Amino acid sequence: MPHSLVHVVDDDPAMRDSVGFLLDTAGFEIALYEAGTDLLDRLVKPARGCVLTDIRMPGIDGLELLRRLRGRGHTLPVIMMTGHGDVPLAVEAMKLGACDFIEKPFDDEALLQALRSALDRGGAAPAVDPTLQEFIRRVGTLSERERQVMDCLVAGGSGKEIGRALDISPRTVEIYRAKLMAKTQAASLQELVRWSVLAGLA
Description:
- The protein is of the alpha/beta class.
- It has 2 domains: 5-121, Rossmann fold (3-Layer(aba) Sandwich); 130-198, Arc Repressor Mutant, subunit A, CATH 1.10.10.
- Helix content is 53%, strand content 12%.
- It has 10 helices and 5 strands; from the N terminus they run βαβαβαβαβαααααα.
- The chain has helices at residues 13-25, 36-42, 62-71, 87-96, 108-121, 130-139, 144-154, 159-166, 170-184, 189-198; strands at residues 5-9, 29-33, 50-54, 78-82, 100-103.
- Strands 2-1-3-4-5 form a 5-stranded parallel β-sheet, sandwiched between helices.
- Helix 4 links the parallel strand 4 (78-82) and strand 5.
- The protein is elongated.
- InterPro entries: CheY-like_superfamily (IPR011006), Sig_transdc_resp-reg_C-effctor (IPR016032), Sig_transdc_resp-reg_receiver (IPR001789), Tscrpt_reg_LuxR_C (IPR000792), WH-like_DNA-bd_sf (IPR036388).
- It comes from Methylobacterium goesingense.
C-alpha cells in the first residue's frame, strides 16, 4: 500500500491505543499523538501517509488542526472521527477539505476501508466519480418533500427539529427519511452526508 503511515490524533489514551493496535495489526505504520499541536510540531514536509483525528479535542480541535495543516501547505488526506450527532461538524470538516469522516463507535473494517481509500487516492477526491454521478442522479428522483428532509438531515437536524421546520410530525419525517435513503441508496446517514458534500449538495 502506498505510504501506509497513519498519523492518529486523539486526546483519549484508551481510544488512541485501541486504534493504534487495530492499525498495527492490519499492517499500517502508525504514529500516535495526544494533541494536534504534537502533530504540527513533529510533521515535516514532504509528509507522507494520512491523518486520522478526533474532531472534538481540547486546545486545537480537529477542524482547527485541518485548517493549520492546510495553512502550512500539508496536503495529507485527513479523516475525522466524529461523535454521534456531530453531522454539522462533519459537513464543515468536509468543506474544509477532509476527505472523509467516520462516526464513533465505528466498525473496524469501515475504518480500515476509509484509510485504505484515503491513502490510495492521496486525499484528492476524483473529480468525476461514477458513484457520485449516480448519487446526484438518484437525488434528482426525490420528491420536493423528500429533498427538503434530506437537506435538513445533511444540515444536522434531528427528527423533531425537521418536523418543526417543515410542519410535519417526527413520525412523518422518519417515513420520508426511509424513502429518501432507499432512493439515494445511501447505506447510512454518514454516507448520505459524505456524498452530499462531495457532490456539492450540502
